[in-house]
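cron nightly-structures :: item 1 of 1
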Amino acid sequence: MKAFWRFVAICLFTGFACQAMAMVETGKTAPGFRLQSLESETVTLEQFKGRWVVLEWVNPDCPFVQKHYSASNMQSLQQYATTNKFIWLQINST
């Protein structure tokens, strides 16, 4: 009986994962979004139409985030991206 429920759970999760993956395709236009900045301004994807946008989810308390920021890895990547006309948006996921 355990094997049956495990099989059902795997089928459900696989179905959800396939559905989520089908929503966004690499190289295609991303679905729009609307976010609020730290300055309480609204930021939309439409503002950056025709540009490459990097979305970085950040949790300042995460040890991996702290490690890469302490080593200046992220700052170097951000500088490279913005120098090459990318838009870099950070989303605080805490």
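cron nightly-structures :: done
The helical segments are 2-23, 63-70, 73-83.
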